[in-house]
Amino acid sequence: GNSVTQMEGPVTLSEEAFLTINCTYTATGYPSLFWYVQYPGEGLQLLLKATKADDKGSNKGFEATYRKETTSFHLEKGSVQVSDSAVYFCALTTYNNNDMRFGAGTRLTVKP
Amino acid sequence: DGGITQSPKYLFRKEGQNVTLSCEQNLNHDAMYWYRQDPGQGLRLIYYSQIVNDFQKGDIAEGYSVSREKKESFPLTVTSAQKNPTAFYLCASSRGTGENQPQHFGDGTRLSIL
């Protein structure tokens, strides 16, 4: 079946450090890929998405490139801020949203 | 502003009691979903609905029930049959069920057992 594997957290960085959160997937067909962010006590917010191979999703300084050859969708940001502290989820869907699969989430803490 | 409203934010259940979690959306979305989130885990799908008066079981439907009488509303009932109901419950909606449609989430309801 379809699945998503994220790097285990927690991840702790200093402000202005470079961030990478790894995400790999297994899917039949051609999935669409998403990154969601969850702040404490809140629901998930869509951060970015990519719907086909080699697409790059970007938002608020975060980027992720859909790599079909390595089945990956790693999240990156060049300079993190304290306000980026949250839990990040990688997710995929295939032919319909009823089959959206989430990774376990990676908690990021950014220290001043 | 359009969005998804979940209520209450915190809910407590006594043993043997059914409780209902509310989810309302004004995004005019056709599809709605309920997820359960446990600490350190990803989201698991409980139920989903693609259109009014229709819904389908997800991966962990046992001990839960839903209804979809209106497009805007998708309440979830946690029954006494659910033996481990303590969790964070998230409701989501999407414009349709095509793979390019992202899901939009409410702020969740945290359910605890007294």
Write the topology of this structure.
The complex is a heterodimer of chains A (112) and B (114).
Chain A: E1 3-6, E2 11-14, E3 19-21, E4 23-26, E5 32-38, E6 44-50, E7 56-59, E8 62-65, E9 75-77, E10 86-93, E11 101-102, E12 106-111
Parallel strand pairs in A: 2-12
Antiparallel strand pairs in A: 1-4, 3-9, 5-6, 5-10, 7-8, 8-9, 10-11, 10-12
Chain B: E1 4-7, E2 10-13, E3 19-25, E4 31-37, E5 43-49, E6 56-57, E7 64-66, E8 76-78, E9 87-94, E10 104-105, E11 109-113
Parallel strand pairs in B: 2-11
Antiparallel strand pairs in B: 1-3, 3-8, 4-5, 4-9, 5-6, 7-8, 9-10, 9-11
Task: Note poorly predicted spans of chain B.
Answer: none
What's the pLDDT, averaged over the residues of chain A?
93
Radius of gyration of chain B using CA atoms only: 13 Å
Sheet of most strands of chain B: 7 strands, mixed
- Based on helices, strands and strand pairing, what is the structural class of chain A? mainly beta
Ranges of chain A with pLDDT <50 over ≥5 residues? none
In which range does the helix fraction of chain A lie? Answer: under 10%
DSSP strand content of chain A: over 45%
First-last Cα distance of chain B: 35 Å
| DSSP summary, beta strand count of chain A | 12
Approximate shape of chain A: globular
What series of H and E elements makes up the topology of chain A?
Answer: EEEEEEEEEEEE
Summary keywords:
heterodimer; A: 112 residues; mainly beta; 4-stranded antiparallel beta sheet; 0% helix; 50% strand; globular; B: 114 residues; 11 strands; 46% strand
Structure description:
The complex is a heterodimer of chains A (112) and B (114). With 112 residues, chain A is mainly beta. Chain A is built from no helices and twelve strands. Chain A has strands spanning 3-6, 11-14, 19-21, 23-26, 32-38, 44-50, 56-59, 62-65, 75-77, 86-93, 101-102, 106-111. The relative contact order of chain A is 0.34. Chain B is an all-beta fold and 114 residues long. Chain B is built from no helices and eleven strands. Chain B has strands at 4-7, 10-13, 19-25, 31-37, 43-49, 56-57, 64-66, 76-78, 87-94, 104-105, 109-113. Chain B is globular.
